[in-house]
Every structure is written in structure tokens, then in C-alpha cells.
């Protein structure tokens, strides 16, 4: 799963192309497609589509070189959609979510470049339906998984981040990030970078595997008349034993629309919070998942809830089949009007290397 998301730890399922004299180069890939049938009750329409899942199709390149006591590394990954095949028949949208270098030593690791953020990072990376479909998302047909129904998106951002060595299961990461301009206008400025951090702890207690995490973000933006402080805290705990897994996570924020952080005016510092609870059971090559999440946002003026039931079947270590039923609702908080009420069936296949 870390390989599929291209986590900074590296792509552990990658195909090694070169490894000699302390220098290595590898490639990893993730490809998927889903048949999607959606019943949208507000518009009273039903549509069938062939789309990618929550994770886009991805190819990543990884580099590592040992020089004395240091190891230099790097990763670039290219994320592509298949959802625009009729809008761009011979072209497709490609974005670069990771383009960074790393320096590792006994002190830990320093990352420079563009990578996913630290705030809400484990919330999304440990989502049980990460390789599924999830809730309806953007108008382009991109699914959102549990983004804005339990956690915000850890935006890929320009950053300089430090990660500590593993200290008996405890890991700490902290970094400075490109700040968002949330107060565009006369004399708009962000006098300090955006700060993000995450602390994780993992332990195995007689067969009970536990993973806990806390992460956060803070930034300020101001212009001649307005100052907006944006901050959030994410947290979670996952416990797994004998094929069973239980995960509970959540977040709370203010001055932050709980979807993704981008340049754009925010009129005030309103609150938002959400949570996600999931249970899974693995039996042989099958994993069964039940997931429920909610988000309540004064800042973005919505209330959402999302329920997913999914089955993941491993044909082999590189080929996975997915069946998912998703129920998503979104209301306008200020008026109570229903904006979205959709039930989705998604049947997909995933190939990865």
C-alpha cells in the first residue's frame, strides 16, 4: 500500500533495474479501472461509467546512492487519469505529486522537494478502502475515497521535511511547506511558511499490532484588512490481530476548508471536524471492509456522511479484484438542503508492480 501511494519511505514493491556499487534504480507502477454504476437521487439520474478508482494510475522512479555515511535518494512519480478519455481522446491529464530528493544518515532523513503533506497523512494512507473507489468527488468524475468524509487531503506540496530514525517504534516528522494565500488582495503576505508535523508509534503486543498517530498543520496569511490563521489536528489508532483490524481516526480544524488547502480567499476562521471508523477481516486471499465517516464544516458549509462496504480479492501478489458499494450524502449546512445523495456500485481490477 505504501508503494501504491508512493510514500516517502519508498516503493517496496518496485522492480529493481540497477543495483551496483551502492547505486540503485527501480520503477514501480499502479494501474486500475472500475465499472461504476451510480444512482444520483437529487438529479434523479443513473449513470454507468468506466473510471479509475480513488488512486490514479501511477508510475514512479526511485534512485538511491551511498556516499560515505550518507545515502542520497530521490523519487519522481507521475499520476494519470483515465476519466477524461472522451474529453481528451488522445491525450490525458498527468500530474506530478512527488518530485523530491532525500538524504539519509544516522540522524534520520531530510527530504527536499514536492511530496504529500504530513497533516492527515496517516489518516489517508491507512484508509482500508484506499485501493477502492469511495465517495463521489469532483465534476471530472474523480472519486474522493473518504476525503471530506472523515479526513482532508494531505496536499502534495513543496517542502523541506525532517524524519527521525525509528526510536523503538516511535517516529517523528516535521517540516516547512509552501503556505497558501488565503487572503488575496492588497498587501497579501505569508510572512512564515506553513508548518506540518506527524508523530507515529507502532508496537506489537503478543500478536496485537497497534499503530497510533497525531499530526497537525498551522499557517497564517494576511492582507491590508484581514488575517486568517489556518490550523488542524489529525489523529488515529489502528489495531490488528488474527485477521481482524479496527481503525478509528479523526480531525478538527479552523480557518481551513477540510478538503484540500489551496490559494483562495477564506472569509473567516470557521471550524470543521470529522471522523472515520473502519473494520476489516482478512480470510485467505479475501479482505472484507466496512467503513463509515462524517465531516461537519462551518468553513465550507457542508455536512457529509459516507458508508462503504467492500471486498478485496488477491488473485496474486500483483493482481487484485475489488467490489464496493458506496452510499454518500452531502447537505448544505446553512440551509439543510440536500446537495448530493448517491449510491454507487464499483467493480474494479488493480494491477501493480
Automatic annotation (TrEMBL):
Main location group: membrane
Keywords tagged on the record: Membrane, Signal
GO cellular component: cell outer membrane
Membrane topology of the entry: Multi-pass membrane protein
Molecular function per GO: porin activity
InterPro entries for this protein: Gram-neg_bact_OMP, Gram_neg_porin_domain, Porin_dom_sf
Domain Porin: 2-331
Subcellular compartments: Cell outer membrane
UniProt xrefs under SUPFAM superfamilies: Porins (SSF56935)
PANTHER family xrefs: OUTER MEMBRANE PORIN F-RELATED, PROTEIN YDDL-RELATED
Name of the protein in its database record: Porin domain-containing protein
Organism: Marinobacter lipolyticus SM19
Amino acid at each position: 500500500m505504501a508503494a501504491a501511494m508512493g510514500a516517502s519511505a519508498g516503493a517496496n514493491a518496485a522492480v529493481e533495474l540497477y543495483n551496483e556499487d551502492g547505486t540503485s534504480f527501480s520503477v514501480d507502477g499502479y494501474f486500475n479501472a472500475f465499472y461504476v454504476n451510480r444512482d444520483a437521487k437529487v438529479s434523479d439520474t443513473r449513470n454507468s461509467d468506466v473510471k479509475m478508482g480513488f488512486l490514479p494510475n501511477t508510475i514512479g522512479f526511485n534512485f538511491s546512492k551511498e556516499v560515505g555515511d550518507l545515502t542520497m535518494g530521490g523519487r519522481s512519480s507521475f499520476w494519470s487519469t483515465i476519466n477524461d478519455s472522451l474529453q481528451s481522446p488522445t491525450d490525458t491529464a498527468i500530474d506530478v505529486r512527488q518530485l523530491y530528493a532525500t538524504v539519509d544518515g544516522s540522524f534520520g532523513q531530510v527530504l527536499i522537494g514536492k511530496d504529500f503533506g504530513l497533516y492527515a497523512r496517516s489518516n489517508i494512507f491507512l484508509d482500508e478502502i484506499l485501493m477502492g473507489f469511495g465517495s463521489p468527488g469532483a465534476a471530472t468524475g474523480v472519486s474522493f475515497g473518504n476525503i471530506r468524509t472523515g479526513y482532508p487531503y494531505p496536499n502534495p506540496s513543496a517542502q523541506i521535511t525532517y524524519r527521525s530514525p525509528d526510536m523503538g517504534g516511535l517516529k517523528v516528522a516535521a517540516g516547512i511547506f509552501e503556505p497558501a494565500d488565503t487572503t488575496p488582495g492588497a498587501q497579501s503576505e505569508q510572512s512564515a511558511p506553513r508548518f506540518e508535523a506527524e508523530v507515529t508509534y507502532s508496537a506489537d503486543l503478543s500478536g496485537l499490532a497497534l499503530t497510533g498517530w497525531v499530526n497537525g498543520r498551522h499557517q497564517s496569511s494576511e492582507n491590508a484588512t484581514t488575517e486568517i490563521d489556518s490550523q488542524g489536528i489529525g489523529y488515529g489508532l489502528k489495531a490488528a490481530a488474527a485477521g481482524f483490524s479496527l481503525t478509528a481516526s479523526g480531525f478538527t480544524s479552523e480557518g481551513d476548508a477540510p478538503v484540500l488547502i489551496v490559494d483562495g480567499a477564506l472569509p473567516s476562521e470557521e471550524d470543521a471536524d470529522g471522523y472515520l471508523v473502519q473494520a476489516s477481516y482478512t480470510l485467505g486471499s479475501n479482505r472484507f471492509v466496512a467503513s463509515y465517516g462524517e465531516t461537519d464544516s462551518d468553513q465550507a458549509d457542508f455536512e457529509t456522511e459516507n458508508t462503504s462496504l467492500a471486498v478485496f480479492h488477491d488473485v496474486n501478489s500483483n493482481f487484485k479484484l475489488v467490489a464496493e458499494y458506496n452510499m454518500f450524502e452531502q447537505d448544505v449546512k446553512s440551509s439543510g438542503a440536500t446537495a448530493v445523495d448517491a449510491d454507487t456500485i464499483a467493480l474494479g481490477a488493480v494491477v501493480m508492480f
